[in-house]
């Protein structure tokens, strides 16, 4: 198990290592205090602070551009909803405040490493409130809150490619699966499936799930998923 810990506070890096050792006693942990000069590498898990030297406004994108691959759990001192939305929209798989108890943190990191996603309950409830009627829908009615965000002339697909997890969710959307079914299949919380769906809609410039599937099919993003579902 190879894990990257990126945080500019030495004491907190040490604390993160203790949490990681609770989940993986023999993990190979690489600890860094800055993203400056980071090179391409593949990790089984990346534990990332959101504000640190060399990271810029979006450390997730900074890592990807450097060729650093692997599921990302953001562990940050910020606990506000705005930062949580920023983190999740970037493509991170988890948002965890640094006040998260060590036992819970270890469990959440294991979940992310195994392909799942995690957000604290209070953040999830806040996201549900932000989403408004969208999160009350299941199936084809899971539309964006503001149809203006999904104007047909947008090019989100070029500037924001789908993450591996979003591709998995999109493939299941193409089969007509509900949020609950997708969550069960991918071991995700239902609220997380809804967040992934909203990001997919924005990135594809789609009005709803059906439109997203159509656009993805036209872009050649769903050839495998659609053939498997047919």
Please give a handful of descriptors for the protein shown.
single chain, 230 residues, alpha/beta, Rossmann fold, Arc Repressor Mutant, subunit A, 2 domains, 5-stranded parallel beta sheet, two-stranded parallel sheet, globular, disordered C terminus
Alpha-carbon Rg, integer:
18 Å
Give the CA-based shape: globular
Number of helices: 11
Q: At the first level of CATH, what is the class of the largest domain?
A: Alpha Beta
Query: What is the CATH homology-level superfamily of the largest domain?
Result: Response regulator
Q: Strands of the largest sheet, in order across it?
A: 2-1-4-6-7
Largest sheet: 5 strands, parallel
Our count of domains comes out at: 2
Helix content: 40-55%
Low-confidence stretches: 132-159, 224-230
Q: How many strand elements?
A: 7
Task: Write a structural description.
The chain has helices at residues 10-23, 59-65, 81-90, 102-113, 121-131, 156-159, 164-173, 179-186, 190-204, 209-218, 223-229; strands spanning 2-6, 28-32, 41-42, 45-48, 68-69, 72-76, 94-97. It has eleven helices and seven strands. Helix 1 packs across helix 4, helix 7 (164-173) crosses helix 9 and helix 9 crosses helix 10 (209-218). The chain is an alpha/beta fold. The model is unreliable at 132-159 and 224-230 (pLDDT under 50). The strands form two sheets. The chain has a five-stranded parallel beta sheet, with helices on both faces. Strands 3-5 form a two-stranded parallel ribbon. It has two domains: 2-119, Rossmann fold (3-Layer(aba) Sandwich), CATH 3.40.50.2300; 132-229, Orthogonal Bundle (Arc Repressor Mutant, subunit A). 39% of the residues are buried. It is globular, with a radius of gyration of 18 Å.
